[in-house]
Amino acid sequence: MLLVDFGENTCKFALVKKQEGNLEVRQWGIEDSRSLEHAADHVLEKTKGMREDAEPALVSLPSALWRSRVLYEGVERKNAALRIDKKEKEAILADLSAKARSRLVKQMQDSSGILAEDIRVHAFNILSYAIDGYAVPDILGFPGARVDIHAMAVFTLVKHLPIVDTILERFSGMPFRIVHCAEALEAFSCMKRQDAVYIDIGDASCSIAVVQQHVIYLDDIPRGGKDFTLHLQETLALGENTAKDFKERYAAGDFSFLLREGVKKGFSAIAEDIGRLAAKSLAGVLASLPPSVFLFGGASRLPEIQEVFHGSMFERLPFHEKPRISLLLPKDLWAVEFPGKTNPILTPLFFLPYASQ
């Protein structure tokens, strides 16, 4: 199975084989993906002849291109005593889906000025049902006055469709699926029963997901690893590629004391800003928060990120109990043996196989 995770600036890939519930990693790599088309061509060329196309390749796209939001919607029934039959179920779900899509459009319009015609919905997945406030596995055959759904919409902006179509064309010679990381996270949480706050500190943005049995909240904040890179460029007068390399060395502790002290103040300010925005986002969750907080993504290894998230930033948020913050690594998702198993930049990639379960 080929796994490909296109980030804002890097493309991560792995060729894996499932073995008794675990993964054998046969090939893997991290590529520059500023040109998504070039990165896709490079990955397909590197894995050519090694792929077994019986299982679809699982591909995720940058969060700016392939978006997701959690939606809640409900409808009142005219006759609460009647049990819902197949025909009424179809009508109820069509009504709720239309309402949820309208709510998505309104949310995007209110937050970004995006109009209905600017949005293309690719998937609308119902995660859970409730009748009169009680969770049910399906609404078919139940009586009740009110039906509620909890759903996840996956969508893109129309202006980004040409870029998406170009990627689709690159993979058209093989079976494949585009998977939003939140869909893979939903599948993972259902299998592992791991309620948590998941924070992916990517290059251009941080993606936040809250899981309580299902994914109940999704958000993105516009800060990430690129802000640390830019600080290095400005402070040390470096080119972008050199600054990115320096950032990796800094995260690994491979920096002299003087250099570390020279950039630490700026890095701390950026990390504090990311922490503040993450806390502000989580304050909008209309539920108490699970105590497990998992950090991953390339910038999650920076010591300033660790200091901020292990500090007092979550003090005023409604956690069940004192939050426990930790890095989430590929080896925590699967029993894998390969050199990248402790690199959190690869964690989103290794969520993807759960979407095929």
TrEMBL record:
Gene3D superfamilies: 3.30.420.40
Family matches, as InterPro entries: ATPase_NBD (IPR043129)
Domain of life, source organism: Bacteria
Protein name in the entry: SHS2 domain-containing protein
Organism of provenance: Candidatus Wildermuthbacteria bacterium RIFCSPHIGHO2_02_FULL_47_12
